[in-house]
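Try it yourself: sequence plus S-adenosyl-L-homocysteine, in.
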Amino acid sequence: MQRYFIKEPLQDRLVIDDANQVHHMKHVMRMKKTDKIIVCDFEGTCFHMEIEAVTQTGIELKKLQALPNAKKSYHVTLAQSLIRKDHFELVFQKATELGADTIIPIETERTIIKLKDKSLDQKQKRWETIIQEASEQSHRNKLCHLETIMPLKSLDFKYYDEVFVAYEQEKTVSFKKALEHVKKDANILIIIGPEGGFSEQEIAFLNKQGVTSVSLGPRILRSETAAMFALSAISLMLEMSD
Ligand code: SAH
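Structure, out:
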């Protein structure tokens, strides 16, 4: 069933009037009165709703029953280094599909892309739209949360139970082995480098903070592939292990 996220709390009756969502419902899905959809708020509460009217500017809805809470057995944050625009946007979409709870864009020593403050606001909005659409498409109950961009060294590790950095020169610790020790409900942070990888100093800094370097296998993956691989591996090991 089609799913839409709205900012407001879910009242018994409400109107969806976001232009993109209205367009999608009217012209892509060709929805009409009595059709049913799922509406979620930004806190992860979802309800089945019925369309009462399709008007010029909005879709009027009536609340039906609540959806059961689909709780994941872990929480994962992806700290993704800034990479070329289209690859970066792909990461937002795919990471959302693959269950990332939070994404933190990070700047590193070898970050090539320089974002001007002026365009940052606009970029952040575009990234949020990509995440919202991917959350709807992949039937998540909760939106993936997007943090504002920060330097690698400003990441605060104390929020996490497990922190990993994907490092192609790590030869002894595989991501699989590392994930075998992760406990249920763990709060995980995985850090992915930019096109040029992390510098030795950055890895030394991270290791000193207690961050575990992990290998994602024998091949060198592009940054965006590494992010998707890491999130898939986490899902496989922690969600599909029973
Ligand atoms: N420029 C580097 C590769 C960077 S790959 C080189 O040529 O050696 C971009 C990022 O993807 C890396 O910083 C790392 O976080 C991740 N990555 C890619 N392949 C990996 C692997 N096999 N193991 C661990 N991390 C990997």
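One thing you can check immediately is this: The first strand starts at residue 3 and ends at 6.
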